[in-house]
UniProtKB/TrEMBL annotation:
Gene3D superfamilies: TerB-like. Pfam families: TerB. This is Tellurite resistance TerB family protein. The lineage of its organism: Bacteria, Bacillati, Actinomycetota, Actinomycetes, Mycobacteriales. Residues 45-159 form the Co-chaperone DjlA N-terminal domain. It comes from Nocardia jiangsuensis. Signal peptide: none annotated.
Length: 165
């Protein structure tokens, strides 16, 4: 049975994923209330690394995907503390690294993400933003779930998305 079939055949896992998707508005509210605490360059770099990791999760980043994610991150009020062009430049740079050399690019963006390791609120916020970006098209693919779980592992926090064993 393929991974996707296993994922879809696990009612508990699908329910858990849907619960997380349903929490996005609550997360947005929480993130907005704390956005003045998230002003460091480390947080900015971690969020842009997370966005690129999720965007590249399926192995490719189309121009349309890049534009969609860039539009989301530069227009998101949670990230208002940072100049939009700076965010876009960081995101595009991370995407370019992931496309040009996937292994090195992945190591680089995980390193960017770990800049908030040891800062639980920032780490959780980075992962929550990543999940919201992954679900921007209305679907969480298995590759995106793996990307989020990899980021959680790199940050040393419990996985926010369950996968079947």
């Amino acid at each position: 049975m393929s991974f996707l079939n296993k994922l879809l055949s696990s009612g508990h896992t699908v329910t858990r994923l849907m619960d997380l998707v349903d929490k996005a508005p609550q997360w947005r509210s929480q993130l907005l209330s704390k956005k003045n605490e998230f002003t460091s360059g480390a947080f900015r770099d971690a969020v842009m690394g997370m966005c690129a990791l999720v965007a590249a999760a399926d192995g490719t980043i189309t121009a349309a995907e890049r534009a969609q994610v860039a539009g989301l991150i530069t227009g998101d009020s949670v990230l208002d503390n940072f100049p939009a062009e700076q965010l876009r430049t960081l995101f595009d740079g991370n995407c370019d690294r992931l496309v040009q050399d996937p292994a090195f690019g992945r190591a680089h963006v995980l390193q960017q993400i770990t800049k908030v390791a040891g800062k639980p609120e920032q780490a959780r916020a980075v992962v929550q933003i990543g999940i919201m970006i992954a679900n921007a098209d209305g679907t969480l693919s298995p590759a995106e779930v793996h990307a989020v779980r990899d980021a959680c592992a790199a940050l040393g926090i419990p996985p926010m998305l369950e996968l079947p064993r």
